[in-house]
Design brief:
The chain has an 8-stranded mixed beta sheet, with helices on both faces. It is built from 33 helices and 28 strands. Helix 7 packs parallel to helix 23 and helix 23 crosses helix 24. 37% of the residues lie in helices and 16% in strands.
Length: 811
């Protein structure tokens, strides 16, 4: 058991597999006593290559819950536990005496977190809990249509739903215990892999509503086969290695042009008035110049130039395994080494975040404990506090001050608002630049949901004084400035902790403070390329060994751009969410505020946790095929009759059940396919046979026949993720979309929370305009009308004017 801020907690882990495993690993890393309860024979997912990592730091007890003796031992353990985390199907949990109602009767203040695939109710409640099934059904695989040069959905390779679900479990469990310590009340909390998909659906849900309502402002979406934006371009080099650029903002792109000796374009009248005035022909001419220019030097030479320049966001594409030598990861503690008695030295994920005052530690191999000799600790005393209001969300009464831009940190703060925190966003005059990217600021409607906003000039003493007053009332502060900037703006940890010693202060940036990249800029394509997610998604042979023509270079760039989608930002958001709650809990436990470091590279190692581990004899991570159908014949996409399905039947029992329900007698009796090893050996033949079988029926028929019976087969092409969340009744039944009202949109549907708390009032508010609450917040701080008017007149305070979409002009 590790030291750390959770050392007074005892957690029972009733999960199988890596989703619950990663969640309880994080809790163990920060000191919780995690007891993993396993059935006879153990967790079947112990055979996964990354299991030595997510089993670390825990104790394990084997109990047969089908017997009275086993259930009695479980109930003894529950009496001494703070929380139970379980991913058993609800019916099975009830049969085994492990459901919430049974355990609550034993431990009244118990926090019980239930993890499912699709949520607790609705048509898909009993569908199998594979990432691929959820990604296919929820439209995520349709979002990759056009990545391979074929029609139809494409396999989603990075397990973002599992990553977000695991960290939602961490955040939800700690938030509920934090609330219990104030109130004495335990509760049921629930999350799912489907809710884990919510952070990655950044704009489709709102865009589809607004396209229908305001078609003139929202024209049809761009071509699926579109080329990259010049700011985010993948670029070839002389040695065949590709580099990902991430220069979102104009000043960063200008730095890139200067570093590559392409800034001479601004002497050309066609380019002098900025990118918004460039014609498509001008843009494509510059694209080809960029591609050919980058071929003149090796990747080492270019990276030396970009690092020396300091203001260019760029990195090499590499695999997850190759990323494990990265000095920024190593020096910022994102790589840990532990001796394992069975396999030797294991290099693996480090801690989720660096808490400077209450650091955790990476645990060693899990211990086995005999149930007969293990004794529970005494139960914790109930709290004496009360919720700020009846049925309030668990973070009600907590104030978060957010000074960050674009997606990663703002989205994490928005999810804290969904848990009940009051989130005050401090923006520059003119607002977060993400607000002006795209028609209707659709993306910003997600990252700013549920917040209050004040717009200030922090380069002035008066602006800094206002932030200081806000910081004295805050519990958590989140910013994403590069090192040195907070000091210049008067918001460094040293400056603000002197005013508020209890402040939990999160610094979120690209590379972390301790490595060579500390001062370098980063945007979402950078960790996507650097940590391996993009290459995994692109499929084998991308980039190809040879690119002989500009047309081939352009096609490789297109594929890498589509593969390196926006997931690295929400991957980081989940770490912001969970680490914020961890820091808040640590303050409750110790009375200490502290500085916490999070960076995008480290956060994305967790999103690639299935492969961020190395030891002698480790099996390589399975890769999708070149056409991005999937990983193997029993876990992949198939074209059905006028539609597509995704199949997930990796185990022998699931394969047999599939053959039975599909009346595939020939497949069931074929000796080649009888076992897992046999199916793997004859993968190509099995894929061919299944392709023929699925072509006989529509995907809806296959899903109706199989999925409700617990066999993993769903339609994969019904809609994109935005359409799924907008239209699917299962989503509405589970509260995964909620109605809100926006100053410009009017009433609209927004996503629900990634964690739900039983009996708690909805805390999910609408998105706000920049500076919408400037006057109200200034008044709350004691500024009178005259003072507020003067601040506005001096350009120190500002508010965006409403622009209802019926009158708005597309930007």
């Amino acid at each position: 058991m590790a030291d750390g801020p959770l050392s007074n907690l005892q957690i029972l882990d009733l999960t199988t597999g890596p989703v619950g495993g990663i969640a309880t690993m994080v809790l163990a890393d920060f000191g919780a006593d995690v007891i993993k309860v396993e059935k006879p024979g153990g967790d079947p997912y112990r055979e996964l290559p990354n299991a030595p990592m997510w089993l670390r730091g825990k104790r394990s007890v084997t109990l047969d819950l089908s017997t009275e003796e086993g259930r009695a031992e479980l109930h003894t353990l529950v009496a001494g536990a703070d929380a139970v985390i379980c991913n058993l199907a609800k019916e099975n949990a009830a049969k085994l005496g492990a459901d919430y109602e049974t355990l609550k009767a034993i431990k009244e203040d118990l926090v019980y977190c239930h993890i499912s695939a699709f949520g607790p109710t609705g048509a898909y409640a009993n569908y199998p809990g594979y990432e691929g099934i959820v990604a296919a059904k929820s439209g995520r695989m349709m979002n990759f249509e056009g990545l391979p040069t074929r029609e139809g959905p494409a396999f989603a390779a990075v397990q973002v739903g599992c990553h977000a679900c695991a960290l939602s479990t961490v955040a939800g469990t700690l938030a509920a215990i934090f609330d219990r310590n104030r109130t004495g009340h335990g509760q049921l909390i629930q999350t799912s892999i489907l809710q884990g998909m919510i952070p990655y659906e950044l704009g489709g849900l709102v865009t589809m509503q607004l396209m229908e309502r305001y078609p003139e402002s929202f024209p049809p979406q761009p071509d699926l086969y579109r080329m990259p934006t010049l700011n985010y371009h993948p670029l070839p080099t002389k040695d065949g290695t590709w580099i990902q650029a991430g220069n979102l903002l104009q000043h960063l792109f200008d730095n890139f042009l200067a570093a590559t000796d392409l800034a001479d374009i601004y002497a050309d009248p066609r380019y002098q008035d900025g990118p918004l005035t460039w014609t498509n022909e001008d843009r494509e001419t510059l694209r080809d110049r960029m591609l050919l220019r980058m071929l003149e030097k090796t990747s080492d030479e270019w990276m030396d130039i970009f690092v020396e320049n300091g203001g260019v966001a760029a990195t090499r594409f590499r695999s997850t395994q190759d990323s494990m030598i990265d000095q920024d990861l190593i020096l910022n503690g994102h790589l840990a080494e532990k001796e394992h008695p069975g396999i030797g030295v294991v290099r693996q994920l480090g801690l989720l975040g660096r808490l400077t005052e209450t650091a955790g530690s990476v645990g060693g191999p899990g211990e086995t404990v005999n149930g007969a000799t293990w004794s529970a600790s005494e139960g914790k005393a109930p709290g004496n506090g009360s919720r700020p209001a009846p049925n309030a969300a668990p973070l009600a009464g907590v104030t978060v001050l957010e000074l960050s831009t674009v997606i990663a940190s703002p989205l994490g703060a928005a999810m804290l608002a969904d848990l009940g925190a009051r989130v005050i966003k401090v923006e520059t005059i003119g607002g977060d630049p993400y607000r002006w990217m795209g028609a209707g600021s659709v993306g910003a409607s997600k990252t700013n949901a549920g917040k209050e906003s004040i717009s200030l000039d922090l380069k002035t003493e008066a602006g800094q004084e206002i932030v200081h007053k806000l910081a004295t009332k805050a519990d958590i502060l989140i910013h994403n400035f590069r090192p040195g900037v907070p000091e210049r703006l008067g918001i460094s940890y040293e400056q603000l902790s002197a005013l508020n010693p209890a402040l939990v202060y999160l610094s979120v940036n690209g590379y972390g403070p301790n490595g060579p990249g500390a001062h370098r800029p980063s945007t979402h394509p950078i960790p996507g390329a650097a940590i391996g997610g993009a290459l995994m998604q692109a499929g084998p042979d991308t980039p190809p060994k040879r690119n002989d023509t500009v047309a081939e270079l352009r096609e490789t760039a297109r594929k890498l751009f589509r593969a390196n989608e926006s997931n690295p930002d929400p991957n980081t958001s989940m770490v912001v969410l969970s680490t914020s709650v961890l820091g808040l809990f640590a303050r409750q436990a110790t009375g200490k505020g502290q500085k916490i470091y999070i960076d995008m590279l480290g956060a994305n190692t967790y999103a690639n946790a299935d492969d961020f581990i190395a030891y002698e004899g480790k099996k390589p991570r399975p890769e999708p095929d070149a056409n991005l159908f999937g990983l193997n014949a029993t876990y992949r996409l198939y074209e059905a009759k006028e539609s597509w399905v995704f199949l997930a039947v990796p185990t022998d029992s699931e394969w047999q059940r599939f053959c039975e329900l599909a009346t595939a007698d020939a497949l069931a009796s074929d000796e080649r396919f009888r076992t897992t090893d046999g199916r793997g050996e004859h993968d190509a033949e099995l894929a061919e046979a299944l392709t023929e079988l699925f072509g006989t029926r529509h995907a809806d028929e296959w899903e109706t026949m199989l999925a409700p019976q617990g066999v993993g087969c769903v339609r994969a092409d019904e809609s994109t993720a935005g359409g799924f969340f907008l239209q699917d009744e299962h989503v509405r039944e589970n509260g995964f979309v909620l109605e809100a009202e926006h100053a410009n949109y009017g009433k609209y549907l927004r996503h629900g929370p990634v964690i739900t708390f039983e009996g708690v009032a909805d805390a999910c508010g609408p998105a706000q305009l920049s500076g919408q609450h400037t006057d109200a917040l200034l008044a709350e701080l004691g500024y009178d009308d005259a003072a507020i008017a003067q601040l506005r007149a001096d350009g120190i305070a500002w508010s965006e004017e409403p622009s209802p979409l019926s009158e708005a002009v597309s930007v």
